[in-house]
Amino acid sequence: MTRRTRSTRLVPTAPRTPRPHRATLAFALTAAASVLLAGCTAPAAAPVISPTETTPALERPAAPEGDLPPELVAELQQTLDDTMAEYTVPGGAVGVWIPGEGSWTAVAGIADVDTDEPVTADMQWPIRSITKSYTVTLILQLVDEGVLSLDDTIDQYIDGITDGDTITLRQLADMSSGNSDYFTDAFIQDFFIDDPERLFTLDELNGYVVDQPAQFAPGTEKVYTNANTNLLGKVVEVATGQDFAEALNERILEPLGQTGTRYITDVSTWSEPHALGYSPAETGTGWEDQIPNFSVLGPAGSMVTTLDDARVWGQMLAEGTLLDAATQAERQQGAPLDAGPPYDIYALGMGETDGWWGHNGEGLGYTAATFHDDDTGATIAVFFNLSDYTPKAHPADQLFRRLAAVIEGE
């Protein structure tokens, strides 16, 4: 096994500093999916309080019974092995579930390159920007309840955002707001240089985009930023009167029985076991540790999950189980991104690739992808503990696409 080098580096578009310690794992922050934090904590309008009823429990879908055919499993396994070798991924976990045919889950490689600890099936994985699909689902649930509208402007909930009287919640959800990214000089100084272990609150994160220049006029382009989703996370808090994590637990995680899924901002609370995150070393061999700080992503990317919970969420997200049918249909209206991750189209907190609906995520040591095909009912989930591959690639998304092609070609 190739060993990790101890060198560290700074990348202009996504600066890094050496990991302060190895005890905890870094959360992902990528140049393509940057974290934006909503500015003023005081909403411009009085808080809108959502209904107090707890979302009823839903029937958690069971995994397809039995194993996939041996010939198919062999091809899927070879695809996993080849992809990990191509991108020099230390470790990963993958699942493929096809109704009427069976299930296949696999783990491979190592979780810790210093100790050679292997990846195990019970590990939790950072899902990066897949978190966005949860956050936007919360917004759409509130739309269904009549608590808010996608045509509300962000200044109804948060003060100080440039073009806030024009930017709608819909434009934040589909990445067409034009809002500034959070990745300002002030944030770079505060996090990457002054204190990589600092725990940022959502309000602090949002503060970095207050009064920042817009990237473009709202609705004229589609540029993917974490800032858009963090603003929506604050809208959830204002509309429900709850912390984001509390609203997420009550409305999604508990009803779906997602016991292996959590919203985490303090990595010291992340329970074992889990894989450590890496990026390729500048020397061309080995890996470098990543900054262990989940709080820099907030509602745009601070969740962890398990393979089985990813299976459930992939299906529930694509089928719109938690939303009214009309809202789900509206959710899936989108267009290609002008800048951002690889999707054929990006809609409201979810994307479509070759007919598969879901989301991917990458940054600071991890890549992830969870997608579902409505036509066949198949779901694919991929987690790798490697990000920032050069030349630019998204290893987990690449494996998802290759596994999908295997399934479709059988």
UniProtKB/TrEMBL annotation:
Residues covered by the Beta-lactamase-related domain: 76-396
Keywords, sorted A to Z: Signal
Pfam families attached to this UniProt entry: Beta-lactamase
Keyword Signal: yes
Signal peptide (residue range): 1-38
Annotated InterPro entries: AmpC-like, Beta-lactam-related, Beta-lactam/transpept-like
Keyword Phosphoprotein part of the UniProt annotation: no
Superkingdom assignment: Bacteria
Record's protein name: Beta-lactamase family protein
